[in-house]
Amino acid sequence: METRRITISDIAQRKGQDPLVAITAYDYLTAKIVDSIVDIVLVGDSLGMVVQGHTDTLPVTLDHMVYHTTNVARALSRAHLVADMPFLTYQSDTPTAVRSAGRLLAEGRAQAVKLEGGTAMASTISKLVDVGIPVMGHIGLTPQSVNAMGGFRVQGRTAKARHSILEDAMAVEDAGAYSIVLEGIPTELAQEITQRLTIPTIGIGAGSSCDGQILVMPDMLGLNHDFKPKFVKHFADLQTTITNAVTHYAQEVTSRAFPAAEHTFYAKADPAKTGPVEVPRLDN
Question: Which residue is catalytic, options 116, 183, 192, 278?
Answer without folding.
Answer: 183
